[in-house]
Amino acid sequence: MKHINNNKKKLINSVSAKKYLEICENKSMIKYSLNRSMLLMKKKKKSLSNLAGIRQVAKP
């Protein structure tokens, strides 16, 4: 019986470890994608402000 219980514990530990790793991966992916979208937004804002600046220069 003890042997079986140890195996069960090992199984549970390996499964929970896998799940934990998956969760961590997902979190880091979410963080990464959030950072990417933030960077893209900043770039877009910059290009928009550049366009506005060009328009202002072209209009005097």
Write up this protein:
The protein has 60 residues and is mostly helical. The chain has one domain. The protein is built from one helix and no strands. 0% of the residues are buried.
N-to-C terminal Cα separation, in Å?
88 Å
Shape label:
rod-shaped
State the helical fraction.
over 70%
Whole-number mean pLDDT: 75
Tell me the total number of β-strands: 0
How many domains comprise the coordinates? Answer: 1
Structural class: mainly alpha
Rg from Cα: 26 Å
Q: β content, as a range?
A: under 5%
Compressed to H and E, one letter per element, the order equals: H
Instruction: Please give the count of helices.
Output: 1
Largest sheet: none
Unreliable runs, pLDDT <50, ≥5 residues?
A: none
Short synopsis of the structure:
95% of the residues lie in helices and 0% in strands.
Give the helix/strand layout:
Layout: H1 2-58
